[in-house]
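Morning F.,

Quick status update on the modeling queue. The single chain you submitted on Monday has been processed. Sequence for confirmation:
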Amino acid sequence: MKAEVRQRWQSRSLCGKLGLPLKEEPFTLHDVYVADEVFFTGTAAEVIAVREVDGRTIGLGQAGPVTLRLLAEFRRLVETDGVRAF
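Structure tokens below.
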């Protein structure tokens, strides 16, 4: 499975497990500016909060409750289901 496909599947799985709604759709820069919180997911980034875009603070300028829940569950999953590489 390609990394981007695996990450998308993992994000969907985590949201479902935590009972968080997941919507994948195009969005505008204005949507980002006015969001309560924004985060990226990725193989290397895992789950990372976006604090600022174009000098504008997003939400409170820190990881919000959804981001923190996803990150905590992701880390728990990696610790329990991951295969140690070294």
